[in-house]
Amino acid sequence: MCEKFLAAGFNVEWKDVKTKLNNLTKKYKNEIKKRGPSQWHHFAKVHRILSAEKPINLEEYVLDSMA
Questions:
Q1: What is the CA radius of gyration of the chain?
Q2: Which pTM does this prediction carry?
């Protein structure tokens, strides 16, 4: 997968990815705490990834974000 990112022009350090994941997780947890439906447009996808609903294919999300 690293080669796919490099070929697409993404050259990032692991700590950058870790920071992004931490920020995304924090945003998701804050949205969960709010009352009512979330207005965050990424909520449904992040919820599916971070919740224990069912296994998912992460490559599907990676490829969608690279398009």
A1: 14
A2: 0.61
